[in-house]
Amino acid sequence: MITPSQLNPDEARKLIRVKDWDNPTAGMANGFIQANLAILPKELAFEFLLFCQRNPKSCPIIDVTEPGSPVPMLSAPNADIRTDLPKYRVYKNGELAEELSDITSYWNDDMVAFLLGCSFTFEDALLKNNIPIRHIEENRNVPMYKTNIGCVGAGRFEGPMVVSMRPMTEKEAIRAVQVTSRFPSVHGAPVHIGNPEAIGINNIQRPDFGDPVTIKDGEVPVFWACGVTPQAVAMHVKPEIMITHAPGHMFITDLKNEEFSVL
Amino acid sequence: MITPSQLNPDEARKLIRVKDWDNPTAGMANGFIQANLAILPKELAFEFLLFCQRNPKSCPIIDVTEPGSPVPMLSAPNADIRTDLPKYRVYKNGELAEELSDITSYWNDDMVAFLLGCSFTFEDALLKNNIPIRHIEENRNVPMYKTNIGCVGAGRFEGPMVVSMRPMTEKEAIRAVQVTSRFPSVHGAPVHIGNPEAIGINNIQRPDFGDPVTIKDGEVPVFWACGVTPQAVAMHVKPEIMITHAPGHMFITDLKNEEFSVL
């Protein structure tokens, strides 16, 4: 009987590669960084990398493959980006074309894969600090919202920041700023605390993506830049082809969460 | 009578632009980030940006211009990268071809300018913490050394890390780690403390660049990744054309040092 949380990254990716696992990856290979995936043609790679560099809170770069190589040398040198995620989405000209579990047939020498930090790492750090994570408690997807905060554009890439929200007490919010500031590579400190309207969110109970969660009396909403941002922005450019992970079906790296803390 | 340290960045750059200042920029526009410059053809821009992203201690990115634009929009939107540094070096096929004070005649639509963090910012933070900076005390250039620490390659870009060295007591070294860890965008924490031979430096009194400085009894050498690294690595690729600042003649941004601290 496999305990997914106890697998090491190599074991977890192998399970996924041989198609013995097609579920979301939350909770697998505990303590290791999981990443969002965005694959783009080389022609767009400089602009997208520059976009990520200019918007590090939304687009924290974990690894970028050499053009044509499916191997993320720095974060998982034994992995293959084409087979080691449980579910992918293929977009053509900005429209979802297919959802599948292996993208080998789509891969070509012109492709560059970007691995971007996701919130799993800082949620782990929050939980270890006894800060509750409501969407986990309520077994829902994290609520996400389009904001009126503009990303810094780079070439053809531009658009609004998408944020995720976690409600907590004001005291916990201060601790959450401290805890997540240590992890700039996985979104870092919150971008906003409190009044949702100040960042263009009119109804906190109607997220643009994910599910609403309960905000209790005495709690404030705390907002973090969200990894959905770069995908939304890239989609807007309508690249001929773009491949991403399916929501929740992330890439598991060999990097430990704590290695990515700055202090 | 002009006091260079009291100028704001706009005033300092204007002085430079009209050729009323052709000296090194150390001490100008106090409190504002100064940056190393590297201009490369667009064809190399993705690989160089990826190299910087993979080697953030050596190559901390402050700003990157859009291809063909001489304006660093994020760090100094009123500046012109072609005229606002007191001295430039033009390299052709990896060889120094010319040193001049205005590169407008070289500029074309194919060029991308990279502004990379320099050590002035963290030296300012060290001084504010009463940590001595020997090369400033002795009025010399900081000693710099090639090491046996390999940078992480990206495409054609690869090579050893160059480090700068500042001697201090062991107690000061601990404080220096804390102080500079706050500034990952300007080289961040040291890469090595103590025995120079461990990183391939055989004679601490014979630096590869800059000048030797006195190491007093009871002091240890503390090594930081140095902004010379990306230039050395880029030169190795022998690009048809590459333009950099002349040593010490940096670009003055509108960004305050403290804005670039993570905590």
TrEMBL record, chains A, B:
Transmembrane segments: none
Name under which the protein is recorded: Putative hydro-lyase BBV17_26250
Family listed: Belongs to the D-glutamate cyclase family.
Alphabetic keyword roster: Lyase
Protein origin, superkingdom: Bacteria
PANTHER family in the record: D-GLUTAMATE CYCLASE, MITOCHONDRIAL (PTHR32022:SF10)
Pfam families listed in its UniProt record: D-Glu_cyclase
Enzyme Commission (EC) number: 4.2.1.-
